[in-house]
Amino acid sequence: MPDSPAESEYSALVESFRAALGAQVIVRQGRTATEYVYELGPTIDCAVSLCDDDELVRSLVDAANGVPVVVYGETEVSDVEEVVHPTNGIESFTRRVASVVEDDLRESELVDGNKKLTALSVHASAITGCESVSEVCEETLAAAIEALAFTFCTVALVEDDQIVPRASTLPPEDQNSCHVSEGIAGRTYRTRETQVVGDITADADALFSATRKSTVSVPLGPYGIIQVVSDSRRGFDEHDAEFLEILAGYTTEALARLDRESALRAERDRLHAFFDNLPVPAVYVEEETPDGRVRCEVNRAYEQTFQRGPNRSNPSVEAAFPNETERRLFADYLWSGDAVAAEVDRETVGGDRQTLELTIVPVPSSGPTGSAYGVYNSDRPRLSARHELS
What is the pTM of this model? Predict the structure, then answer.
C-alpha cells in the first residue's frame, strides 16, 4: 500500500481489511510496496493502492504480474482490477477487495486442481498398467506424493482381517498393522466411506502416535485403504479428500483387474488339468492381439488319435489347422464368448477318416487374449448351439 490520502483514513482502511478479510494484511509504503509485490507476487491474493499517483500505480500493476490490483482513489491506469472512489466509503471498498480476493482464491484453486488432475492422469496410466499388487501400491504412493503433494501417506491392504501397510512414507515405527475393527483405518474399511478427521486426538478410534494431528482416510473398495496424515490440526479439506478419492478409484480398479486375472489364471489351470486327462481328443488355442499370433496345445488323446494336429506356433488361426471347418470355427468363435459345435472330418493315426463333432468352448479373458478349448467327440451329442457352414 503506497502513501495514504489521510493518516486516519489509512489506519481505518487497514483495520477494516484485517477485520473483514480474516487474512494477513501486509502494509508497505511507496516504492517498497512495488518491490515487495514483485518479489512475493505468486503468494499474494490482491494488491491495494491507497494513492492517486499514477506512476506508482503503474509500477504496482507491472510488479504484480497478474495479481489483481484494486485502487482506492482515482487513477488513469486502465489495467487495474477495479477503482473505488473514496466517496463510496471504506466499507464498500473493503467488500470489493474481499470479493476480488475470493475470486482470486477460487481461480487459484481451479488452476491448482487442473494441475493435480493432469498429474494424476499420468500416474493413472502407470497404475492401471501394473502387473502386481506391490507395483500398484508403490505407484499409488508415488501419485499421492508427486501429483497430490501429500507428505505422509500409507497404502494398506487387508490380509486375514488385518489392515497391513504395503507402501508408506511414514517412519517405520508408525507403519503398524491393525485389525479391521480398529482405528480410523478400520472404520474407513468397514463403512467404505471417506473419513476426514481434523483432530485425531479427539477421535475415539485413533491409533496414531501423538505427533499425528489430522488425517484423510479413503477406502480402496474391498481391498484396503489409502490414508494421508498431517502434523497439523485441520491439515486437510474437502478438496484433498476429493483428489484422494480419485486416486483411490484408479487403485481400486487396478487391484480388481489383478484379482480378476488371478481368478482366470486359477480357472485356466483347473481347466488345463481337466483338459490333459480328457479321454477324447482336445485342443487349446490362444490368440494374442494386435499381432494375431496363435499358440496351440493338444492333450494326450489328441496325439494318440490324429495323424496330423495344429502347429504349436502359427501366424494366424487359419494357418494352425489342417481342416477348413476347424479353421473357420476357431477364427469365427475364438473371441465370441459362446460355445458352438459342428461336424468335422479328420484323418486318424491309422489312416482312416472319421466324422467327429467339434465343440468349441471360449475361455473368458480380461486382457487382449482370445482363447478356447476344442473337444472332438465321435458320439456327437446334441448341443443348443450348432455351427452351419455354407
Answer: 0.55
